[in-house]
């Protein structure tokens, strides 16, 4: 259906203007009549560009699902629920999106189809679950599951950021201390050593060379991480092959790689369980879950598993063959299949990985602090040995 602009009057003679989906002008007039409006003039319209900029965050989506679930469970029609939400939402961009959903539904579309017009706000899994809720009559349960899953994702992302930010912060401190030592402190102390005229030991000559490098190329040292980050981001965007190799490299990183794999698989299992319990077929669950993996290696594994399931294999055997899950998880899936409670088994898988992720993040955080202390201590020890060693030799040769 196309989007039409219209000007109409209501039963009290008030003039109204708006946009609505319709097949043609006759269909437009009939739709407006069902809304209690008489068409004055109408015609095809282009979809309006957003008047507001800015991202719609996960908290807004959580509130959207929570309020819509509460109103739907109370028996309030979708249109009235969305109207209440539109009037209570503070984010102007999100208010505009909800108004667009209202227009599309008034034009004859259902909620899931309306959401498909806003893929930048509602992910594909969002629309798929809403569609399943509409078809099965379990809209409130689906919305409740979506809200809980979004809350869980929010907590998981917060944990991941915590894991990444701490090493970055401590690493920045180490880099700052290194720059201070090499650019300011070491040259002053080395001036005294050179003035003694004695032979300079090897470790001191190395320190002088490193200090000179930092003095001459400090800008390169500071710019290198930024340039490397920009280059990697550009290569990932332009080269699928590079992105695949980089995703594989991230999964192979010591300590951090296994944690990232568990986070991805935990999210996949949670989404899969939610979609499966909503009545979506296994193949459609896997196909939708592939897009939320965020890693080409995991996505390729899910694609292979989906192909094997389509060929007749059961879920546990397919996942075992592609090597995505460890044996314990495979046994959990096998029990879920045999008992007819695959969604419960997948939720257990998600809980299993979520617990492992929390434990692993806690262990890494405990290890980071002493590791950084050792690195900083070794750096300071090298500088002191290289500087104070020759000074001590000079003092020991003085005859009193």
Describe this structure in words.
The chain has 400 residues and is mostly helical. The protein is 75% helix and 6% strand. The protein has helices spanning 25-34, 58-73, 78-88, 92-106, 111-115, 124-136, 139-195, 202-238, 240-252, 256-277, 282-291, 296-310, 315-322, 327-339, 342-396; strands at residues 2-9, 15-22, 38-44. Strands 2-1-3 form a three-stranded antiparallel sheet. A hairpin with a 5-residue loop joins strand 1 and strand 2. The model is unreliable at 48-53 (pLDDT under 50).
Order of helices and strands: EEHEHHHHHHHHHHHHHH
Task: Report strand %.
Answer: 5-15%
Major β-sheet strand ordering? 2-1-3
Structural class: mainly alpha
| Low-pLDDT residue spans | 48-53
Rg estimate, integer Å: 31 Å
Shape: elongated
Helix proportion: over 70%
User: How many angstroms does the end-to-end distance come to?
Assistant: 101 Å
Most strands sheet: 3 strands, antiparallel
Number of strand elements:
3
**How many alpha or pi helices?**
15
Average of the residue pLDDT scores: 78
Name the features.
mainly alpha; 15 helices; 400 residues
How would you briefly describe this protein structure?
The chain is mostly helical. The chain has 15 helices and 3 strands. The longest helix has 57 residues, at 139-195.
